[in-house]
Amino acid sequence: MENVAIEQYLPIGLMFLFALGFVVVTMVATHLLGPKRKSKVKLEAFECGIESKGNARIPFNIKYFLVAILFVLFDVEVIFMYPWAVNFKHLGLMGFVEMVTFMALLLVGFFYLLKKGALKWEE
After folding, report:
1. What is its main location (predicted)?
2. CB 101 within 8 Å of CB 80
3. Are 95 and 87 in contact (CB under 8 A)?
4. Of 60, 63, 59, 61, nearest to 117 (Cα)?
């Protein structure tokens, strides 16, 4: 019975090895075959086509960080709704009640953030 379980995972293992091999071969090939012309301009930091000025360690408004974290938080929570929607009929009434509870907690958190002013830019 153990051999059957291992055989079932063989395609996944092979796909992982091929993907890893492709990445390694591509990185080595580009390193060996690519041009090696270093200059002061090419060694400078490049950020979205804008020349870098000053120190990168300047303070910035914490609201940018907070909004980004909140976006990731709610985005990940919304991703949980897709498998539920696919299996909606199979889960039945109990699955529906669980998802309504999940969405209610999500909305409670969202309204809490709105009440605290976490998404307001002006103070």
Report:
1. membrane
2. no
3. yes
4. 63
Q: How far, CA to CA in Å, does 15 sit from each of 20, 22, 37, 94, 104? A: 8, 10, 36, 37, 40
What pLDDT, in 10s, does the model give residues 80-95? Answer: 888 888 988 899 999 9
- Reading the block at residue 95, the tokens are 């699955």
Contact indicator for 118, 71 with CB cutoff of 8 Å: no
Per residue in 38-95, pLDDT (tens digit) is 888 777 776 676 666 777 677 777 778 888 888 888 888 888 888 888 988 899 999 9
Sign of the Cα torsion 49, 32, 37, 53 reads positive
Q: Say if pTM beats, i.e. exceeds, 0.85.
A: no
DSSP β-bridge partners for residue 65: none
Measured CA to CA, the distance from residue 19 to residue 100 in angstroms comes to 39
Q: Please count the residues of the chain.
A: 123
